[in-house]
Amino acid sequence: MPNTQSQGKIDLLRLLGAEARRHAERLDNAVWTNQFDNTANRRAHIETTGPEIWEQTQGKVDAFTCATGTAGTLAGITRFLKDKSGGRVKSFLADPPGSVLHSYVSSGGKLVERTGSSITEGIGQGRITDNLAPDIGLVDGSMTIADEKSIEMVYRCLDEEGLYLGASSALNVVAAKEVAEKLGKGHTVVTILCDGAYRYAERLFSRKWLGEKKLLGAIPKHLEKYIVLP
């Protein structure tokens, strides 16, 4: 497990009895799901999430964007929407700081060394996963979303929409906003809200943590009322 994961996630996995990959290899009736490179992940989004988006927008979706971890969500939804619309629907990859995928897409396929870090968890990559590889060529563009924008959106969504989102979901909202501004008025842009804040509250709403990450200045004054933890 990456050392960027929240204590809440670590505790939950321990509670559920999670063990290391090598245990699955040597124990009978044990399974390692390998979510990054098990393409059933991508296929699930081709068969379910993509059709759901198409149905709920009545086929009027113009673009889809989200960040990637395993990349099953981005790849599967992109593949379905591209096929269903005859290539009309655009796809944009959103990347946190420290990930190499924006650079890969914008450079036409050059993979650079991963540097830096982000407050987000579970998104961003240093390689092309097996879930992403078949569909990376379908992605129309990419962007890096700064942590300052993501943390501000965490607070904005809580205040303006009553949505208690984690930083990864907030990053996706920022990306959708930027894609909408790029495409212009009248376009429908879809993203995914992939995490809630309940596992990260001890960080996201902590004055000390925000200060340590140099993110206090990213919170508008009228939203500082939500910084309720020391």
Automatic annotation (TrEMBL):
Coiled-coil intervals, chain numbering: none
InterPro entries linked to this entry: Cys_Synth/Cystath_Beta-Synth (IPR050214), TrpB-like_PALP (IPR001926), TrpB-like_PALP_sf (IPR036052)
Classification via Pfam families: PALP
Domain Tryptophan synthase beta chain-like PALP positions: 1-195
Membrane-spanning residues: none
Gene3D superfamilies cross-referenced by the UniProt entry: 3.40.50.1100
Domain of life of the organism encoding this protein: Eukaryota
Protein name per Swiss-Prot or TrEMBL: Tryptophan synthase beta chain-like PALP domain-containing protein
